[in-house]
Amino acid sequence: MRRLYSDIIDNIVALRIAIATSVLVVVFAFGTLGYHLVEDMSFFDGFYMTFITITTIGFSELKNLTSAGRILTMIIFVMGIGVISYIASQTTQLLFESELFRRRAMDKQLKKMENHYIVCGYGRIGHRISEVLKEANIPIVVVENRDSSIERIKADDLIHVQGNAQEESVLKEAGIERARGLVCALSRDQDNVFTTLIARELREDIFILVRTNERQNTRKIKRSGADKVISPYEIGADRMANVILRPHVDQFIHRITGETQDHVFDEITIFEGAELAGKTLEEAQIRQKYFVVIIAIIPADEQNITFNPGSDDRMKVGDSLIVLGDVERIETMRTEGCNDLRSLSERVSNYDFKEKLLDHDLTLE
């Protein structure tokens, strides 16, 4: 809707510019024909005289003009300058009004947003996080202070707030009171710590995910109020080491986490009335029916996780299944076998990070 409104405004002003440009062409044609009829000039000379008159270049006349020719010149000058001034004003209006309208439309959307995620920082990490969440239709607001990054955010058509994420007013403008979570992806750990402190002070119950550059800072960041701390550099280094130590494992991981993602890890919750509810893995015949591998079963009370479950392990309503398989087959199993009809964004919005996996380590059985 925001893009539609912006396009309407842009098109109205652009239409005015197009009409004014057409009028300018008419003025040139009028002047060219006028000099040809009044001063007996060739069409090229008439066009030249019209051009230097409208643009006020100030070259000398091609010939001494008659009184009628001078009156014609004044008429052309007034008409030409008027049209050019109008085009210039409309072009300026197009630049300023479209940006102002976008900002107002974005402010209206910001006030209506709830259960969204705030991404602080739009560097490489923040950009990728925003890209993935946007593809999953998860509502996000990006907070960024750098002008260069703001231009990228606009190009990516993301709702954003320009300002310092370490300021309360900026986080409030991003809707932290209504947000579901906050992702601190700023480049410096100290900035992430301070942002976390401010966010936790504003909202005690908000989920906060923080990026860190140094492992030794993890404890400090958690003490500042973060629920989860991730080091992308450490993860990247481990992945590179795996290429050398476990090349086939790395190929497998790349297959399920790469851009194509034809096979993925996923989690499926069993709902009331599901075909799989109350059945053992042997009875359900999941691998034969859905061609999906069950990696683990997390019970509804989340006290213990059953890793590599056996054929006699029973699935119950509320259990979450960690699965590996083809994307389409997993979705078939989710809807037909587990009676989970929610979209990805609905599943994310219903997940309580504060009460579930992030608060305690599950025991493997």
TrEMBL record:
GO terms for molecular function: monoatomic cation transmembrane transporter activity. It is found in: Cell membrane. Residues 253-339 form the RCK C-terminal domain. Keywords: Ion channel, Ion transport, Membrane, Transmembrane, Transmembrane helix, Transport. The keyword RNA-binding does not apply. Residues 114-230 form the RCK N-terminal domain. GO terms for cellular component: plasma membrane. The chain crosses the membrane at residues 12-35, 41-59, 71-88. It comes from the Bacteria. It is a multi-pass membrane protein. One of its GO terms (biological process) is potassium ion transport. This is Potassium channel protein. It comes from Halalkalibaculum roseum. The lineage of its organism: Bacteria, Pseudomonadati, Balneolota, Balneolia, Balneolales.
